[in-house]
Amino acid sequence: MAPPRRPSGRTPDVPQQDHQGPQGPQGNRQPERLKQRSPHGTHAAPGPVREVLEPGQTPWSTEPESSFSTWARRFFRGLVVVVLLLAAISGIRSWISPNRTPQTVVSGQSSFPSEEARAVATRYAVAYLTWDENNPDARPAQVGLDLASGLDARAGWNGRGKQTADVAYPGEVKPADNGITGVVDVRVQVHKFNRQGSKGWAAAGTAWERVSVPVARTSARVVVSGPPTFVPDERAPLPANMPDAGKPDDDLTAATEKDAEAFFGAYAESDNKVSAVTAPGSTIRSLNGAVKFGELKDWQVYAGNDDERRATAAVTWDGAGDTTLDQTYTLTLRRTVATDGAQRWQVAAVG
C-alpha cells in the first residue's frame, strides 16, 4: 500500500457541486484529500508532520561513506577473487580430499643411507652363509633380523650341511636411480665342514666369498629385499693414470741412505729410539718389537724444495724363525739445521 500523501500547508479549494459535476471547467478532476483511519482511533495523538517533497526530490537522504568502510569492502572483495583463483589452480578436489602418501612409501629425493645399508648387508651376509643341519632353526632366525617381512627366511637353503661365517667386510654401495633400492658388495670369510661319521663334522678349510646383497630403505629402516648373489672376486691391474713418483734426486738419495737404515732399525724397536732419529716436532710411533729390521733393499729420494722431500723405501723385516717379509714405505723428509750449522735430512712422517 502506498503511503498517504501528506497534507500540504495550504487549504485546497472546495469543489463546486453544481451542474458541471465533479470536474472543473477544464474537464480535470479536482484533487481530493485522502484520509487514513488511525489504528489508535480518533483520540490518538497526531504523529510528526513530515516535510513536503519538492518536485524531483528523492524520498531518502544519502550519507558519506567512511574511508575504512570503503577499504574493508574492497579488501574482502579482493580476498574472494584470490580464493576463487586458488581454487581454480589447485582444484576443489584437492581441498576436500587431498592425496595422502602412505607412510610406507619412501621418496627418492633424499640421499641413500649407505652406512646403514652396509651394516644391514654385512650382518645379513654372515647369517646367509651360516647353516647347520643339526640346528636348522638357527639360520632363519638370524636371517629374519634384516630380511624384509613377508619374504622366506629360509633364503634358498635346503636344510643340509654345515658352514659358518665369522668375518665380513662391506664394500661399495650402489644405489639405484630411484633412490630407494640398491646393492651392497660384501666379502665374507667362511669355514667349511665335511660330514665325518653319523653326527660328526670335520673342518674342510677356510675361504673368502663375495656376495652382492640387495637392500631397500623404508620409512623405518634399511632391509634386505631378497637373496644375495655370488660375485667373482678377481684381481685387477693398476690404473693407467697412476700418479708419477717424481724425478729422482740421486745425490740426496746416496747422502741419506745410512740415515734411512738407522731410522728403520729404531722404528722396529721402540718409541724412544725412533724419536731420537726423527725430525724435531714430529711424533712417530714404533712397531715396538713386532719384527726386527733386516735390510734396506731400496731407497730413493725425489726432487723437491729445499726444506721437504718425498722418499720411498723397500724394507725386509725379520719375523719369527726364518720368516722374512718385504714391505714398501713412503716417507716425508725434512731438512734440519743443528746449532753448529750442520744440515741434516730426517724423517718427519711415515705414509
Record field, number of beta strands:
10
Mean pLDDT: 83
Q: Strand-residue fraction? A: 25-35%
* Uncertain segments: 14-26
Note the overall shape: flat
Portion in helices: 10-25%
Please state the CA-atom Rg, rounded to the nearest Å. Answer: 52 Å
Structural class by SSE content? alpha+beta
Give the SSE string. HHHEHEEEEEHHEEEE
Number of helices: 6
The major pleated sheet works out as: 6 strands, antiparallel
First-residue to last-residue Cα separation: 112 Å
Structural write-up:
It is a single chain. The chain is of the alpha+beta class and 351 residues long. The chain is built from six helices and ten strands; from the N terminus they run H-H-H-E-H-E-E-E-E-E-H-H-E-E-E-E. It has helices spanning 67-90, 92-96, 114-128, 138-143, 250-269, 271-275, and strands at residues 131-132, 162-175, 181-196, 200-217, 222-224, 229-230, 292-301, 308-318, 324-337, 343-350. Strands 1, 2, 3, 4, 5 and 6 form a six-stranded antiparallel beta sheet that branches. The protein has a four-stranded antiparallel beta sheet with strand order 7-8-9-10, with helices on one face. The longest helix is centred in the first third of the chain and has 24 residues, at 67-90. The radius of gyration is 52 Å and the shape is flat. The protein starts with 66 loop residues before the first helix and ends with a strand. The model is unreliable at 14-26 (pLDDT under 50).
